[in-house]
């Protein structure tokens, strides 16, 4: 059974909705899914997973959340991520998804293999919920 970890930061719940739907998609294909707010996440949650999904809003001047998410991800800078299949997801207010472009570059530098991305404006619409589920299925397959 494939092990997937979904790790996210959310305060208003928009990113959390995406996280829950990625989880549902992966479980639909029979994967075992660990889902955690990054505050509670451990390095092993990522290193031991077959594939991961990370979620963040655009915050702090069109960047991923800096205090917890960016700090957590720095742990992987010096570790070998062996091109682990990774999905990035998140929500923005006004940056039109620029935070995701910068985030993808950073994650490639850290050695992750970005296989899918989803950036939505504020709360996800029905079509975007479907995309989140499809990304979960992509990881779970
Ligand atoms: C304190 C704060 C800072 C924000 N900064 C940005 C920003 O720099 N750029 C942007 O596009 N949206 C910004 N937003 C909007 C959020 O990215 C957007 O509301 C997102 O849906 C929040 O996700 P959440 O509900 O999962 O917390 C900010 C929102 C808050 C509350």
TrEMBL record:
Question: Where is the Flavodoxin-like domain positioned along the sequence?
Answer: 4-140
- Transmembrane parts of this sequence: none
Keywords recorded for this protein, A-Z: Electron transport, Flavoprotein, FMN, Transport
Its required cofactor(s), as named, are: FMN
Q: Which InterPro entries match?
A: Flav_short, Flavodoxin/NO_synth
Function text = Low-potential electron donor to a number of redox enzymes.
Family recorded in the similarity comment: Belongs to the flavodoxin family.
In Swiss-Prot or TrEMBL terms, this protein is called Flavodoxin
- Species source reads Clostridium mobile
